[in-house]
Amino acid sequence: MAASNTTVQAAHEIARKRAAECLLERHRFGWAEALPWLLAVTAFFVFPDRMTFGSQVLVMVMFALSLDLILGYAGIVTLGHAAFFGVGAYTVGLAAARLQWTEPISGLFAAAIAAAIVGFITGWFLLRYRGLTLLMLTLATAIMLQETGNLRSDISGGYDGLPGLTFKPLLGVFDYDLYGHTYYLYALAVLAVVFFFVRRIVYSPFGQALTGIRENVLRMHAIGSPVHWRLVMVYTIAAAIAGVAGALFTQTNAYVTLTVFDFDNSAKVMVMLILGGTGRLYGAFVGATVYMVLEDYFSKLSPTFWQFGIGLVLVLAVLFAPRGLLGLLERAGQYFTEKKRS
Amino acid sequence: MPHFAIVAVSILFDGLAYAMFLFITSVGLSITMGLMGFVNLAHGAFAMAGGYLVVTLTRTLGVGFVPSLVIAALVVGAVSVVFERVLYRRLYKSTDLEQVLLTIGLAFMAIATATFLYGPIPKSVPLPDWLQGDVNLGFRYFPSYRAFLIVLGAALIAVLWYAFERTNIGAKIRAAVDNRRMAESVGINVDRLFTLTFAVGSGLAALGGGLAIQLLGLSPSFAVLYLVLFLIVVAVGGLGSLKGTLLAALVLGVFDTAGKYLLADAGGFFIYAVTVAVLLIKPAGFYGRE
Asked: Is the pLDDT of residue B290 over 70?
């Protein structure tokens, strides 16, 4: 009796250790994680004349990453994420055009704060709702912001936007160049900072709680987790990041129009994320890059063809690859390792 | 008649015509969403398909406007069954997100197809003479097309109300919306009921699309542009409620028209403000189940 008891205890001990190891293991950096960053730096040297496009890709990666936080991890389905991108974009745009505040890095912080405030207020109201109601309310938020901008077109410039913005040199030293080299590296650096921040959040206890809410909200309520607060918090953080992405968008393009609030923009970022794979951080990298490169190529060929193609990809993705391109890769990997074993 | 009264009557009249269009197009969406909880973002694409069918029938084949509307509704209703059986049914038990993605993918494909076939320029239809001029209501002339919309809408409401409240199938639908599992366990074939309502709903959407050509204009972006409106009507009215959809269509139609009359600059702002206000107070809409 006593002997078997100790064996059971020992077995428990081993199981607990394994679980702890497993948890620690998950957020340790793998070698593969260096890959996207190496690729981004390689791209800088291989395609020096496509760096303006490269910056756009990085901006969309960041935007998709912010959506991954709320959609992939917390399970909030929104059709109005462009609202925060737009708030960030207009914070920087209006500051530069109306207040002559053209220092880029402080502009990013201002955009993050403005978007976070909007995210906090709307999140506080909207995140009590689920399903269709939530979809409609998020969508209405983005459109109402757009309409407000249109109403005060004396300030916002309306649908003509704020063209020809100029920004001060980065850190007072590196000036904007015609090929967008400076801004590519700048966007990459900002993306790296944001990414490590997001990665930390995701693997923190807070991130675990979010996953719990996504998987089973009733159980999270039952164990006393402050569900609403957690959702509002992650919504605010995601809004701030989307705001930074929007600010970078304005700075790299040197213009901004009200189309940033479009439903198309919200739908596009969602498609990118789904394409790459949700709830896995790097899905945003893969999805946004693949989408932007394909769009760049096919929409020059024929915009109609491109739109049909992206629709078809969505339908096929839902039917055959619900976990995105990265999910497909993972499945292919599993298939081959299993084949080897047998 | 004093000026403000004329404005008020005009707003009511135009708002009512608009509301009828919203009701006809959205009612199918509301019932199917109430039945299966399926988020169908391709509903606008069915409406657009109806519109383009009417364009082809009247312009190319020389069919009259009213018969074209009927044919378009029947054809789209029949075709929608194929989509429902082949694609939609696979996702009934899936998450909102997957349904959203599948149907928005279909909407994109529909827009691309329409652009390919008809070009991006808005289309118009030849109307019969009796729909062109104005009708005299004693104190003011009103466009007879809008009067036609109001009469048609009222007739459809009566038919739908009867079908919904007084027939066996209507009773089954109401039972399934209220409690699907219970309805299934007393032997109602909810699956087949859904196919039927889906076909009728898509057919009505196609009819709405045909009616919209004259009212709003028809271009390929119709499928997504007005989809938002249909979804708003459904959300504000409450899923699966005929009464709710009607009330929502009336409120939103009149408010939107009033906003455009009185504060042209604010444009689309009103309809969204009303939506947010209603949904914040009643998250499930006017007559939705909490």
From this structure: no
Structural domain including B200 reads: 3-281
Write the ipTM.
0.83
- Split at pLDDT 50, 70, 90, the class of A194 is very high
Whole-number Å distance between alpha carbons of B118 and B122: 9
Sequence-distant (6+) residues with CB within 8 A of A118 are A83, A84, A87, A145, A239
Question: How many C-beta atoms surround the C-beta of residue A301 within 10 A?
Answer: 9
User: Inter-chain contact B272–A133, Cβ cutoff 8 Å?
Assistant: no
Query: Of the candidates B151, B154, B146, B152, which has an alpha carbon nearest to the alpha carbon of residue B10?
Result: B146
- Say if B106 is an interface residue toward chain A (CB within 8 Å): yes
Tell me whether residues A140 and B275 touch, CB distance under 8 A: yes
CB contact B91 to A (< 8 Å): yes
Distance from CA of A254 to the nearest CA of B (A): 27
Inter-chain touch A136–B279, beta carbons under 8 Å? yes
Nearest CA in chain A to B91: A319
- Torsion sign over Cα A46, A48, A53, A55: positive
Asked whether residue B227 is assigned to any structural domain, the reply reads yes
Of A173, A237, A176, A169, the closest CA to residue A202 belongs to A237
Is residue B289 in a domain? Answer: no
Under DSSP, is residue A228 helix (H, G, I), strand (E, B) or coil? helix
Mean pLDDT over the full length of chain A: 84
Q: Each residue of A35-76: pLDDT tens digit? A: 888 888 788 778 877 788 888 899 999 999 999 999 988 888
Domain extents for chain A? Answer: 36-302
Could you tell me what percent of chain B has a pLDDT over 90?
Answer: 36
Which pair of tokens denotes residue B207? 């009819």
How many angstroms separate the CA of residue B176 from the nearest CA in chain A? 19
Give the chain A residue whose CA is nearest to the CA of B234: A132
Q: Per the CB < 8 Å rule, is A322 touching B234?
A: no
- B140 Cα to chain A: minimum distance (Å): 32
Q: Would you say residue B211 lies in a domain?
A: yes
What are the chain B neighbours of A323 within 8 Å (beta carbons)? none
Burial class, B81, CB count within 10 angstroms (exposed 0-12 / middle 13-18 / buried 19+): middle
CATH number (domain holding residue B9): 1.10.3470
CATH number of A36-302: 1.10.3470
B:137-196 residues touching chain A, CB 8 A cutoff = none
| Domain membership flag for residue B288 | no
Query: In terms of Cα–Cα distance, which of B244, B268, B266 is closest to B256?
Result: B268
Give the number of domains in chain B. Answer: 1
| The pLDDT value given to residue A172 | 65
Nearest CA in chain A to B38: A132
Is residue B39 within 8 angstroms of chain A, CB to CB?
yes
